[in-house]
């Protein structure tokens, strides 16, 4: 059963979430919109539609503003010994983003546990205030599953001040339309609120490519006293993504006649419903102490019914459609996180220390019509899509429960005005209980106990620049911790180690910032075939990556601004044996399939008249291997996007955006040995109006 080739993280491991269109994040990521798949392990790849919304200008590389992702101590990027980037909501909505694996996804600082390789929330950018990206090992912050980094989506929150409202209406190619509304401010001296609603619909660029989504976010904050505030938040999302899994290559080439075809079934269905409720409390009894607590509940329901693998057969001239499957998820995650921060003097040196704990329970029910794997053949260009007819019943197949708790601590010791040391430790205990509802003999219970840590040094010659270095140890599950299989339960977690050095600089007069980082990551305890017996799998494999990444945000003039980033990565299998027929073949020294070892992005914005702005963006993704044997490559691609906006008056802004100006035909990802391409968005346009009142 084929699977769309995912993007990769710093380690070269699959990255099924976290592609930021227009920003490579230094993780070697691919770009462009994706479909939602349930293939072979029920992986999914979500696409957040780009929306043109702009407000006051903020640099994504602001070094002097605290973040909550790089450290729970609230350190500024200049104080953190790691590569960090902050993307404002305006930047995200202007460029769009889509898409987890070794890069962890967080929502408002809380981990979203992956269920069967899938995360479907959040999916709309309208309610996003900013995204914070922590590159490199982050398990010490958030637990297993973050060797490559962490991405934290921070929603808009209640604010003090007058109530402000905004509304967005947009129309675009392929009958794409969106309407959104946002409102927030103070109700009285103690109460404030935030409300965001967004509805989007599109016919898609391919046949039967309709998609629809509705996102609602609401929050109320109560300032009990100057020292204590409580916030109740709820986010709800419903999606029906495009029922599109790509097109097959014809005789090894992309045939223009298939560009807008959809080989999925006529009654294919993809539906997701997510709800997330949080109760946050922040207590500051003194200037030296801060206590925070978050109690939360996440529930998600997902359903797939489709055919996902297509291959052209030269002997018959037909396309074979495989991987007929129907899958359902019901996942509930409940937990609590508490931490206490204390600022004091230690032997005459300023010290910040934080300690806390996480506890949660996740229940997961997986349903399917396994072992059905339907198959059909159709003409490559003129065919009836057909319907899904499974002889197997659609039933609950397994139930899983994960009970986890963890203790963590961080400390920053400022030795003097220039030198500081930042360290962190985390200890996790996770108990997995899986009940196979069809084959009870496959049920099991397994406990994972592991510790992670990091230590870094920062040297800041002055207030606008810093050099740093860090060493970190992290952990990853072999798949998804929550849905560990019977065979995977015999093995330990994968371990990783990272060494990173870098430099950051904030430019004077708000002219921008730049950073550069070099790193090496080793990922061990990967599964590999026994060199003496190909039928035996051992946990002896190793994979490594090393690279350099740079980011730049620079005001060239008072009206011209340049944002750019680039990554050069070398990812390799160090120890990996693959079974080919009855023979064992070493893939040591090869690059993992699907990983672009070079990415670059440039975004140039120009205020050519007092109320007019124009922008041009280029995003480059290097060539990628289609398999571990390096039989062939998928070539590189460069895509250009552009926009122009007019601030009609202080309350109204109009914007026109163009995507893929050159109408480039390229694969966002590929599967089936490289012979099935999930195509990126063709040339398209979108016109929007943003009203504030």
Could you walk me through the main structural features you see in this protein, from its secondary elements to its overall organization?
- The chain is built from three helices and 39 strands.
- With 693 residues, it is mainly β.
- The chain has one domain: Maltoporin, Chain A.
- The protein has a 22-stranded antiparallel beta barrel.
- Strand 17 and strand 18 form a beta hairpin.
- The chain is globular.
- The termini are far apart.
Features of the shown structure:
22-stranded antiparallel β-barrel, Maltoporin, Chain A, 693 residues, 58% strand, 39 strands, five-stranded mixed beta sheet, 3 helices, mainly beta
Question: Cα distance, first to last residue?
Answer: 52 Å
Q: State the domain count.
A: 1
Q: What is the class in the CATH system?
A: Mainly Beta
Number of strands: 39
Largest sheet: 22 strands, antiparallel, barrel
What share of the residues does DSSP label as strand, in percent?
Answer: over 45%
CATH superfamily: TonB-dependent receptor, beta-barrel domain
**Helix percent band:** under 10%
| Coarse shape | globular
Q: What is the mean predicted local confidence, pLDDT?
A: 84
Instruction: Enumerate how many helices there are, as a single number.
Output: 3
- Class by helix and strand content? mainly beta
| Radius of gyration computed on alpha carbons | 25 Å
* The CATH architecture: Beta Barrel
Uncertain residue segments: 1-9, 11-59, 96-101
CATH topology: Maltoporin, Chain A
